[in-house]
Amino acid sequence: MNSINKKNSSKKLYLLFDEIQKISKNRELNYFDLKPIKERTSYYSDKKVSEISPESFEMESSFTLDNFGSLLEKHWKNDGSDELLKLIPMISDIAKEFYNVEKQNTDVSPFIYVMF
Amino acid sequence: MGKNILGISAFYHDSAAAIISNGEIIAAAQEERFSRKKHDPRFPINAINYCLQEAFIEPGELDAIVFYDNPLRSFDRIIKNFIMTGENGLAQFEKAIPSILGVKLWIQDYVKNSIGTLGKIDKLLYSEHHLSHAASAFYPSPFDNAAIITIDGVGEWSTSTIGIGNGNKIEMLKEINYPHSLGLLYSAITYYCGFKVNSGEYKLMGLAPYGKPEYFDLILDNLIDVKDDGSYMLNTEYFGYLDSLKMTNDKFNSLFGGNPRDPESRITYREMNIAASIQKVLEYVMLKMAKYVRKDTGMENLVLAGGVALNCVSNGLILKEKIFDNIWIQPAAGDAGGALGSALAINYLYFSQERKLNPTGRDSQKGSYLGPAFSNNEIQAFLDRNDYPYERIENGDTRFTKIAEALSEGKIVGYFGGRMEFGPRALGARSIIGDPRNIETQSKMNLKIKYRESFRPFAPSALAEDVSKYFEMDVESPYMLLVAPVKEERRLPFDLGNFLDNDDDMIRIVNKARSDIPAITHVDYSARVQTVNILDKPDYHNIIKKFKEITGYGVIVNTSFNVRGEPIVCTPLDAYKCFMRSDIDILVLEEYILHKTNQPNYKDKENWKEEYELD
Q: How many helices (H) and strands (E) does chain B have?
């Protein structure tokens, strides 16, 4: 990635961040609780599907740069996260810019951020 | 018809590959052993190549290739996390998004580029992260049915799961989800105490017995709410991992009365007490969870995996409380083991293969000796090519006696024999071994051989048949994943309080004998036991047996064959380098014995220690 591309990619990254902030502010979203809820008697949740089917190991189609957006769209529609669908074009665009599948050299790529 | 399946874990920490054929685990290895970069997270091309070679399988013969995690669900969690954290999350966003969109999502492309195929089914399979852990714990275990607990930092959304295994089936029943994570809580305190996340957790566990759990109530009152069934939630206000590049934040610092300890600075009572406190909290949660799982599933057997299952103190407590009749823990419990678990999951849950238990009644993990071995011809060629003086002793009995004699004389031996271990522990294939009776062994091994912190304890390898002579333990612990107390009659009077009241000089504490096997007796009289069964590792068993014939003790000190920050040695060259860079007296490479005093001057880079980032 040359310096001009890097600059463009960074710009797109911040635009995505801004868009995420808008979603964050515009809706009362609660993807997870941030604090314990003392009244609850248990914090376990039941697995939605406990039995493992062969299909659960398969993505609907090959997971590639070209169809990543459609897989993401399906995933977010299925779990009711429609508010995120508008992010998909930006995310797909950034993925194309940052796509960095390269041969292993001696250094760990700065792309691999491993805190978790 | 049997299936050939390749499992891959990568891009978080400890990338690895594993291959199974017709349900048998053929090979498994972490990439770090080949690349020589500790906890290497990169795509494990070297480990994959090794696995294929060991199995004599061409890539085109693979029925399926599976990745141990679902990157789409991980991406979903990352995006939703940034929505929840708002604008504070920018610094983490700048790192995480290029990482996942640039590299981590494209595992399929990595596989295709590196081995040219996605297997006969022509599509990469994905196993959910905790299912991979669960499969790694259940399928190789000796149990036909068992309750399953997996706990780690986070995988996709899950941080803890409960399941059951029955025959060739696994059912996942319950879970706790991000950001509530016992693993991340332990890692946050690891970070706060000045150790590295994802590698220093083991040090924190080793530090805990030096302290008093003075912060136990503080942690339970503020950081984590634990229910009677062992389920829990964290108060995320105290943690930095949601929205910053640090695990803790200012509010956490205020709670504990100061900033995190600077890495490599002196360890004080505060860190010792915090370590003791979080260890007690972890045990508190694990015991409650284990009791609940026993009651809820009705199972007599328990299997464990996920990084938290490497906490052998907590495992030892579950065993001691006799909550389950039997326990089995996957030795590669961290993410590396996900490669193996995902391959096993595909074999049984995707291809519905029949599961056959090991007819001996033992597990199917093969002692976890699943990595590369080197023949005597290869070793001799290496030694001759470099003109390194050696003595070859082909007779095993003579060789083992010679090694045992050296140990009994206080010599430190680098032992390299058979297939390399899979998982973070050295189990006698790539081990540095010593005499546990010698009071100076612990500090010498720590400071002059491993170049690591003086407080860190060493583990014993004991003859399986003799283990109860030394430890309050009557079960096998082949993977060094259970802690047990040294027998009371072997203990010597030792009051840690007296030392801590005077100063916190840990060398003084470490050098005080606590039993007749001081080098492996921790300050609380505990030991992280490896039992050695002749069926798993006959050469290593024989060394300990010979040591017993000479000294009367069927137990030796065992630590991993590496220096601090270096991955455990893989090849004869790695072993020779480590031998010459440290105060190891004798190197054993299969039938070849090398004495340090006979070796030519070793020309090494002056700054060789900089090759390895401190862990």
A: 21, 21
Q: Is the dihedral of CA B30, B36, B40, B46 positive or negative?
A: negative
Architecture of domain B376-602: Alpha-Beta Complex (3.90)
The single-letter code of the amino acid at A94 is: I
Are B106 and A65 in contact (CB < 8 Å)?
yes
Q: pLDDT tier at B1 (50, 70, 90 boundaries)?
A: confident
**CATH number corresponding to B177-326:** 3.30.420.40
Chain B: residue whose CA lies nearest to A64: B106
Read off φ and ψ for residue B499, nearest 5 degrees. -70, -45
Ranges of each domain in chain B: 4-140+330-364, 177-326, 376-602
Instruction: Enter the CATH code of domain B4-140+330-364.
Output: 3.30.420.40
CA distance B570 to B572: 7
Residues 46-75 of B with CB under 8 A from A: 66, 71-73, 75
How far apart CA B451 and CA B33 sit, in angstroms, is: 19
Share of chain B above pLDDT 70, in %: 98
For residue B231, give how far its alpha carbon lies from the nearest alpha carbon of chain A (Å).
Answer: 5
DSSP string, B449-510: IS---TT---EEEEEGGGHHHHBS--S--TTS-EEEEBPGGGB----HHHHHHH---HHHHH
Q: Which residues contact B299 (CB under 8 A, 6 or more apart)?
A: B145, B146, B147, B164, B293, B324
Q: At what angle do helices B572-581 and B376-385 cross, to 10 degrees?
A: 50
Per-residue pLDDT of B151-201, as tens digits, reads 999 999 999 999 999 999 999 999 999 999 999 999 999 999 999 998 899
Q: Which residue of A has its CA nearest to B188?
A: A115
CB contact under 8 A, A104 and B94: no
Gap between the Cα atoms of B601 and B603, Å rounded: 6
Structure tokens of B208?
Answer: 């805990």
Chain B residue numbers touching A25 (CB-CB < 8 A): 86
User: Is the minimum CB–CB distance between B153 and chain A shorter than 8 Å?
Assistant: yes
The answer to whether the B4-140+330-364 and B177-326 domains have the same CATH topology is: yes
